[in-house]
Design goal:
Shape: elongated
Structural class: alpha+beta
Number of domains: 2
Strand content: 5-15%
Helix content: 40-55%
Largest sheet: 4 strands, antiparallel
Strand order of the largest sheet: 1-2-7-4
Mean pLDDT: 90
Radius of gyration: 25 Å
Order of helices and strands: HEHHHEEHEHEEEHHHEHEHHHHHHH
Number of helices: 17
């Protein structure tokens, strides 16, 4: 009899935890999340070594924040000692159209699929708070929510929770949603029943590696952000090295190439969450129109989207690279107009684009432009201008 009483006592919390988890999943799906699963807080013991190796190789570029709080980033318990479970949630942002269609329209700018929508940080965080609120109220537990804004390794945790696996392009891949998932995390003191981790299903496929225009993958499952177009056009603060400019093509914010070619995308349905709907007109915008944006117009056009966070100057830097790659001499005037821009980021790429589109016009403008130019990088771009060919006598 005492033994049976003891067995009943230990089984009751497990049932309660299971019901609590079911309620959390139900609320998550109702909020528009596509998947919700659980990992124990100690589920990624290999993460610290992997993160340290990646940082030691310098593959994070100038994302200095990746070097900060590395212990907390690699181990949930270091960030919050009381965490017992991590609820990982994914929201599908797939589309019915071809995300790469704009790449063939060289006079227009290609914006990554995720950035043609309302900023996912705002959408996902609000919904996470709803799910976490239910968890806290029903379970009498503490919670913390994260959406790419704290030292949390979402992708390894998502794999540990069974949402998907980190593919050879380092992005999470799901058998149900392909490569199109926004991730959010809820740390909680509740001990919830964990889900099984997902195993790797990439097999021998290497489409994501082979399509990269700038060779950003030194090996499968390893990303060198310094060569990644998404990093260069979104995160990188300075001038973009000449060796990457041609590969950037007309990608003016982000890059979807490695995600879009993943075979698992065939199982991904278009996003049903209305607040993730594509903003009309944000893709395939004429480069000439984008190059003419001042700061106020830039902020108005991209209000509420991730693009706005990059700022006008870096965005116009990207637009000018696309102009230089357009092969359209008739667009040289858009670059010429920006030779006197206040930002050296913009001036430098205006020089590069103008030389690519009309070296004759660039040669005519060079003396006056150089006379008043004090930025070394801008002067260096002018230095790439080939001397005027000698006429045969």
């Amino acid at each position: 009899m005492p033994a049976r009483q003891h067995e009943a006592c230990v089984s009751k919390p497990a049932i309660s935890a299971l019901r609590l988890k079911d309620a959390v999943v139900e609320r998550a799906l109702a909020e528009g999340f596509s998947v919700c699963r659980v990992a124990p807080a100690d589920a990624i013991p290999e993460a610290p070594a992997r993160l340290a190796a990646w940082l030691a190789e310098g593959h994070h570029g100038d994302m200095a924040w990746m070097e900060e709080r590395t212990e907390e980033r690699a181990a949930p318990g270091r960030l919050w000692s009381e965490v017992r479970s991590v609820v990982m949630l994914g929201m599908n942002y797939g589309t019915e159209g071809d995300p790469l269609a704009t790449l063939d329209q060289k006079d227009r700018g290609a914006i990554s699929l995720y950035a043609r929508r309302r900023d996912y940080h705002d959408v996902v965080k609000g919904k996470l708070k709803s799910v976490a609120g239910l968890l806290a109220a029903r379970g009498g537990v503490d919670v913390k929510v994260f959406v790419d804004t704290a030292p949390v390794m979402e992708k390894p945790l998502a794999q540990a929770a069974g949402l998907g696996w980190q593919g050879k392009h380092s992005v999470l891949v799901s058998r149900e949603h392909g490569s199109w998932l926004f991730l959010g995390a809820i740390y909680t003191t509740a001990e919830l029943p964990p889900d099984e981790p997902e195993r790797d299903h990439c097999g021998s496929c290497r489409r994501c590696l082979d399509i990269c225009p700038t060779d950003a993958f030194p090996a499968p499952y390893r990303l060198d952000a310094r060569r990644c177009i998404a990093y260069l056009t979104v995160e990188h603060q300075g001038h973009i090295d000449a060796e990457f400019r041609a590969g950037i093509g007309n990608r003016i914010f982000g890059c979807d190439d490695c995600l879009a070619v993943c075979p698992w995308n065939k199982f991904a349905a278009a996003a049903r969450e209305t607040r993730l709907s594509l903003r009309d007109g944000l893709d395939a915008l004429p480069l000439a129109d984008l190059a003419a944006l001042d700061d106020a117009a830039f902020r108005t056009l991209f209000a509420g989207t991730p693009v706005k966070r990059t700022g006008r100057d870096r965005f116009i830097r990207n637009v000018l690279i696309a102009l230089g790659n357009s092969g359209r001499p008739d667009l040289a005037g858009s670059a010429e107009t920006l030779l006197a821009d206040a930002s050296p980021l913009v001036r430098a790429m205006a020089v590069w684009a103008l030389i690519r589109l009309s070296s004759e016009r660039a040669r005519a403008l060079a003396p006056a432009a150089l006379a008043g130019e004090d930025d070394a990088q801008v002067r260096n771009e002018w230095g790439a201008l080939a001397p005027e060919p000698e006429h045969a006598s």
